[in-house]
Thiamine-monophosphate kinase (Microcosmobacter mediterraneus), 350 residues
Amino acid sequence: MLEDKNPKKTALSKLGEFGLIDHLTQNFKINQESSIKGIGDDAAVLNFNNAQTVLTTDLLIENVHFDLSYMPLKHLGYKAVVVNLSDVYAMNAKATQITVSIAVSNRFPLEALEDLYEGIYTACKHYNVDLVGGDTTSSTTGLLISVTALGIAESDKIVYRNGAKPNDLLVLTGDIGGAFMGLQVLEREKEVFKVNPNNQPDLSMYAYIVERQLKPEARKDIIDLLEQLQVKPTSMIDVSDGISSEILHICKQSKVGCELYENKIPLDPQVISTCEEFDIDSTTIAINGGEDYELLMTISQDDYPKIKANPNFTVIGYITEEAKGKHLITRAETAIPLKAQGWNALNDQE
Ligand SMILES: [Mg+2]
């Protein structure tokens, strides 16, 4: 629905696999010291000296993880990189390299893949990571993208999910719920478009939440900030599935309980107004919606003075002994057990 009506279409068969890879990756440059050899040989060569290496991978499938009727390919390329970098940052590591593999059907002309790689290129530049390899193959149906990201950290800097201790503060970056509500708006506009294809959607009043869905950012800035403030979280995770599920991951791995305060959860005014418009409870969205790619961490109370004046951080609760359980404390001060409903489960309910 957001597509150009008369695009140029060059068949992929014109280039062949190697020609295609060369064409799509010709503008990518190597910037990281650790990238000894990037694309162009049988394998990339990397040298991390004595640093520990963080490795993460993600597979995205058309119509399962993304819908091209409202997701421009440029944004998809950007997002595919960002979601992986977010996992690297969630380890308190610095992202350095990625590989990208795609499978495409002949439905996609060269120009479509150029758009996809433009998004990948923009993300590489913005986050200063090198594209050092990948694969391109054909698919019988839709588009598949697999991104692998590498990062480095000194061994004493890496933050795992299992280090939270009772009395630690539960801290969230940014605000949440926006990506989920952005998706609701896009899905609604898609239905309108199906009925009337001439109807161009006006999304200006939803700009922030639509951007949170289509062009999320990974919180590299927070990793730099934590270093600057000399705060090492006791545990950390990125918010891909919703904070309820992420908090439970931390609690399970750290063998602790927690209290999350409903009235402390940071929401953008656009999330609140869109929730009202859709008649959905904003707290449900905040804790179960996903894809915000913020960072959720626990920090020692001793570190609180270092973060308290910083608008990037919000204390949303604290860690308790495991036996106390995991609860959401509502505005009415009722304790409700936290459940891992998550992003997918929320979709299934509709
Ligand atoms: Mg993660």
